[in-house]
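Re: weekly structure request thread

Next one in the queue (180 aa):
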Amino acid sequence: MSWNLVRLDEVAATPWRNGGGVTRELLAWPGADDWRVRMSVAEVATDGPFSRFDGVQRWFAVLDGAGVRLRVDGNSQLITRTSEPFAFDGGAATDCELVDGPTQDFNLMLRGAGGRIARVRGMHSAECRARQLVALYAGRDGARLAGQAIAPDVLAWRILDGDSLLQIESKSALWMEVTP
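Done, posted below.
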């Protein structure tokens, strides 16, 4: 099984307009201008608002740092390195407050697609369907995906040709299944 691999350190950082951090876009599928699936890693340096993405379902997970408190339409949610990814409406007014210094965060955004994201701690089996886009972000500890070693800070992704049972092993990785 062949995986597309995207190394975080090989992706250029794009500064935010508000100066509060940078983003490294790991995947924009099917294309950068008309994406339905977007995966990125952000380095958040200061408190501030999130960009709005009307019509987009977002998931947010802290990879490194003490965590953040997100306020989405006035409701507060604490998110740390051990929290499950947090789902919210990309069009909602969202503000971010750092808990204790900068963080590194993973973002999954879906436009017109369905999906899910979960943390993998230990062994995980995923029953996936043909034509799904599946992806694993191996954090600082790396991971094993379908018997293949995935280096730390690498996104491995592919669109499945047929139904598959995939085995994932990691101390802390993010697993995503998307139906475009």
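The chain has no helices and 17 strands. The chain has a mean pLDDT of 95.
Next request, please.
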